[in-house]
Amino acid sequence: MFSEEIKAFKRLGFRHVLLQLLNFASVLASGLMIWKGLGLLTNTESPIVVVLSGSMEPAFYRGDLLFLTNPAHERYHTGDITVYKVPGADIPIVHRVLETHDVVVNEKGTVQASPLASEQLLLTKGDNNYIDDIELYQGLEWLERKHIVGKVRGFMPYIGYVTIAMNDFPQLKYALLGGLGLLALVQRE
After folding, report:
1. What pLDDT does 130 receive?
2. In this model, does residue 101 exceed pLDDT 60?
3. Where are the alpha helices (DSSP H) in the chain?
4. Which of these, 152, 151, 127, lies nearest to 59 by C-alpha position?
5. Which of these is catalytic: 46, 64, 95, 147?
6. For residue 125, how many C-alpha atoms fall within 13 Å in the half-sphere facing its CB?
7. Catalytic residue among 46, 55, 64, 147
8. Which residues of 163-183 are buried (b: 16+ CB within 10 A; e: fewer)?
9. Active-site residue among 46, 64, 133, 147?
10. Residues 126, 95 contacting (CB under 8 angstroms)
11. Is 133 a catalytic residue?
């Protein structure tokens, strides 16, 4: 069976194989452009994320796909569901805002509460967790705007399990990518 595929591959010729490789590269480049375009449109580095744990149950379950935005002018409020990433952490975390504090940071770096705040400090907590996230902040007392990846605007349940499966079983990822690449090469259209 494999030798038949090699014979079919040889019959296609160099130009056809090159055309298929260019088509495959075009599909990959289009996907990357769409991802980056969504990032620019939503003002976030990750406009789509997958829930990896059960800390937000029952609001979101493991494998749910979340859609994020991060408008620069919008303030966060208690109850908003955010995705944040602190320095030193490997993956972003999806949790609900528990407290917000509007502050002004002066030239010396001193933080003062102010209704005319230029900065906002956040404290978060997972719906399914008993305590707030201070332990997750890697030594920080509060989250700042620079730590926020985005605010959850919508979700699709369980769609993200494909991503979880590919991360849990890397062989599946390589098999899928290899199969798609082979299909792109031997396709005759």
Report:
1. 94
2. yes
3. 2-12, 14-42, 161-168, 170-186
4. 127
5. 95
6. 11
7. 55
8. beebeeeeeeeeeeeeeeeee
9. 133
10. yes
11. yes
Report d(CA 37, CA 26) in Å as an integer.
16
Provide mean pLDDT across the span 20-32.
85
Copy the structure tokens of residue 33: 């452009």
pLDDT tens profile 58-87: 999 999 999 999 988 888 999 999 999 998
| Fold of the CATH domain 48-158 | Umud Fragment, subunit A (2.10.109)
Angle between helices 14-42 and 2-12 (to 10 degrees): 90
Note the pTM of the prediction, 2 decimals.
0.76
Domain extents for the chain? 2-42+165-186, 48-158
38-42, 107-111, 127-131: segment of lowest average pLDDT: 107-111
Residue 62 burial (10 A CB sphere; 0-12, 13-18, 19+): middle
